[in-house]
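Human: For the file, kindly provide a plain-text protein record giving the amino acid sequence and the backbone structure tokens, at your earliest convenience.
Assistant:
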Amino acid sequence: ADQVKIYTPRLRHEIMDILASKKASEISTRDGKKALAEELRTAANGIVDTSSGKAKKPGTEPIQAVLFTSF
């Protein structure tokens, strides 16, 4: 968790960028929310993961899920 904190400004920027690019109709369905969560997770891992760029095994990324508490 502490590793993620140092990236907070960049993560917030990327999240806001992605959210601003979406239409309400794209994220109003369950599938749309799942796709958004996966897009956010991938983007966040691209920022937080500072490893050598080698392929990762599933489940070894720093951020494994994006969960919405309200929408």
